[in-house]
Design brief:
Length: 332
Amino acid sequence: MRIIFIAWLFSITILTILCIKTIPVYSQCLEDQKSLLLQLKNSLKFNPAISVRLVNWTPINDCCGWKGVTCDQAGHVTGLDLNSESISGGVNQSSSLFRLQFLECLNLANNSFIFTQIPSSFGSLTSLKYLNLSNAGFSGQIPIELSLMTRLVTLDLSTLYFPGIQSLQLHNPNLSTLLQNLTGLTELCLDGVNISAKGSEWCQAISSSLPNLRVLSLSNCNLSGPIDYSLLKLQSLSEIHLGSNNYSAPVPKFFANFRNLTVLSLSSSNLKGQFPEKIFQIPTLQTLDLTNNGLLDGSLPEVGQIGSLQRLLLSNTIFSGKLPNSIVMLIR
Ligand SMILES: *[C@@H]1O[C@H](CO)[C@@H](O)[C@H](O)[C@H]1NC(C)=O
Ligand SMILES: *[C@@H]1O[C@H](CO)[C@@H](O)[C@H](O)[C@H]1NC(C)=O
Ligand SMILES: *[C@@H]1O[C@H](CO)[C@@H](O)[C@H](O)[C@H]1NC(C)=O
Ligand SMILES: *[C@@H]1O[C@H](CO)[C@@H](O)[C@H](O)[C@H]1NC(C)=O
Ligand SMILES: *[C@@H]1O[C@H](CO)[C@@H](O)[C@H](O)[C@H]1NC(C)=O
Ligand SMILES: *[C@@H]1O[C@H](CO)[C@@H](O)[C@H](O)[C@H]1NC(C)=O
Ligand SMILES: *[C@@H]1O[C@H](CO)[C@@H](O)[C@H](O)[C@H]1NC(C)=O
Ligand SMILES: *[C@@H]1O[C@H](CO)[C@@H](O)[C@H](O)[C@H]1NC(C)=O
Ligand SMILES: *[C@@H]1O[C@H](CO)[C@@H](O)[C@H](O)[C@H]1NC(C)=O
């Protein structure tokens, strides 16, 4: 199982490498690509004292050698990683960013585009496989145009809650319309996005469109329950993060039938009733977080029946029964 997990980690790493330059690139940047990047730099508002990439983009150098820029062999810009660059604005509908037609990876995470909507022009980046706008500060309705990025493998729009900062909304389009054509997604992170949907809606939206999903992260999305059986179609699921919602329902028994599950996180979600003991037996499960479900009952399994569990978080639940001696060592 460890080998399987490592293989999975490795495949995630490959995708990440697309965006982070680890191998020297010998291709020569094409003039039009360089000019688009310089226009982008000039329009972006950022703090040069904090920036470590943008600030070093200088016209005299080959743009494929600039920090945060990745190119293909022909000299087209295929990756742009501008996360944590203190960017506070300067991306509007007509930004030169959206003319980088060869972009496959774009990371603008952890910036402060506060009080700005996600520009619909993102939809013109149809080659994108990896889009990361997590904690970028965007708010308001997520534009329907994102559904045009049909090659996406990873979509991360998650936002931690900051008081005073508005959340992203997913109403029109709703989750189902947004995901309809994003069928290649293996990783979907919409934590903190206001989805406000009931169990049958959000579960079916995901299960009918994303057959290859491995990571599902929808914490704090104002989801309600009950969690729908249709989710079980997603047999590749490896990580489920669905905490900080309000299901007012039991944990479904069918969760025990996810064959590749490594993380199950359902904290603070008003889960009730008896926790299905079979879930402990999922052979791949490493982390189980059920904290802050004050009405969730259950008993601890026998040691022989806990698969490969390494982290078990149960505080503020009403789990009872005898703690097998050997399980103590498993709780870290
Ligand atoms: C978009 O931003 C550019 C550069 O900051 C500016 O010149 C242009 O007028 C803006 N366009 C719109 C439609 O706001
Ligand atoms: C976010 O960006 C700031 C710089 O603006 C940096 O100091 C901080 O470490 C970044 N946080 C993360 C989680 O990357
Ligand atoms: C998005 O970017 C942030 C900051 O670089 C990183 O911490 C996070 O893991 C990325 N998300 C995904 C899904 O790769
Ligand atoms: C989502 O939006 C589509 C298109 O507007 C609509 O047909 C569908 O009923 C909506 N789904 C839900 C669950 O509201
Ligand atoms: C999804 O693709 C179908 C077929 O190409 C198209 O008719 C539909 O409008 C697309 N939906 C969205 C939300 O883009
Ligand atoms: C979330 O969406 C619901 C339904 O549209 C709305 O009533 C609620 O005010 C929104 N909450 C936030 C925090 O934006
Ligand atoms: C959650 O969704 C419900 C129903 O749409 C809405 O009335 C409520 O305001 C939402 N709560 C939050 C915190 O957004
Ligand atoms: C489960 O994980 C293994 C190893 O990563 C993979 O080969 C297998 O295809 C996965 N199963 C599903 C249904 O995705
Ligand atoms: C959770 O949902 C239940 C049933 O819809 C409702 O009674 C309760 O007030 C909600 N709890 C919170 C914290 O919103």
